Amino acid sequence: MELLGIHHLSAMTANAQKNVDFYTKILGLRMVKRTVNQDEPSMYHLFYGDEVGNPGTELTFFEIPRAGQNHNGNNSISTTSLRVPSDEALSYWENRLNQYEVENEGIIEQFGRKVLPFEDFEKQRLILVSDEKNLGVVGGHPWEKSPVDSTHGIIGLGPIHLTVPDIKPTEAILTRVMGFRRAGDYIHHQSSHSVVVYETGEGGTGGELHVQERPELKQERLGRGGVHHVAFRVSTESELRNWLAKLNEIGVGNSGFVDRFYFKSVYFREPNGILFELATDGPGFATDEDQDYLGESLALPPFLESKREEIEQKLNPIKY
Using CA atoms, how far apart are residues 86 and 95, in angstroms rounded to an integer? Predict the structure, then answer.
């Protein structure tokens, strides 16, 4: 069994409309699914991605309107990377972010790649990373109707950054249980602390976790602008069930098998408390909507369809 790379990442927002405006109009992602949190249907769950929301391109948000600001700290998914095709694309993006007055640090180097750190309107920490030297997991395909030039468009999720008080137990579950390989390290440009890089599948920008040990930090308090969990790609449902059996065999507490309709999942926490998910590549977002109209109306999984009227009354309409 081998995890194929990053599947999706789910973050928190307090304003669904502003979130849609930022991620579709400024970053040029396609909203591929407008649905609800299946565990709490009174809140939106918005999915952005490439042209069809291919696995590895999905950035998702739960809307909690009264959520306080995220308090950055330890035991956290601390930064989310988004891949762009080339170094040239980063120059395009630096100009675009400045044009829209998006806070950014300019183009720097990180682990031998050009990157552009920035923040969204809720101070979520993000990085655009160049795929120019990538030889690993292949990226997706920007949506042709995006406001961003397709030659420079975002092609998927890049390395996901974790901050932990003790790296040893996290490394143990990554390498001994999940099959990640240690790929190198570098010094973080802000903290001057060492960051250890782990890779899975074909590696590269679509298959990396960057882990920083910061014992002096307080634990993060999750809120708007924070990240809830990261998911890793599993090829099939049968393989996911094998992973579940493995977790149970070695005594890792988990959610059991969960059917999310668009993919099947298993959730568990690594030793520093960060929530991980294993998710299948399919069946995908075109399961209940025509591919040409993804995200244009509220989609509900079959088990929630009978409650549509009640659910829609609790949600504020989104213009898209």
Answer: 15
φ, ψ of residue 229 to 5 degrees: the values are: -160, 165
Whole-model pTM? 0.97
Beta bridge partners of 41: none
Q: How far apart (Å, rounded) are the C-alpha atoms in residues 212 and 191?
A: 10
Per-residue pLDDT tens over the stretch 145-164: 999 999 999 999 999 999 99
d(CA 96, CA 82): 15
Domains delineated in the chain: 6-313 (3.10.180.10)
> Residue 265 forms beta bridges with which residues?
258, 279
Give, as one character, the DSSP assignment of residue 318.
-
Give the count of beta carbons closer than 10 Å to the beta carbon of residue 240. Answer: 21
Beta strands in the chain (DSSP E): 6-13, 30-37, 40-49, 58-63, 76-84, 108-110, 113-119, 125-130, 156-164, 181-187, 194-199, 208-213, 227-234, 258-259, 263-269, 275-283
Tokens for 13?
């927002």
Distance between CA atoms of 122 and 262, rounded to whole angstroms? 28
Note the pLDDT tens digit of each residue in 259-292: 999 999 999 999 999 999 999 999 999 999 999 9
Task: Kindly tell me the number of DSSP H helices and DSSP E strands found in the chain.
Answer: 6, 16
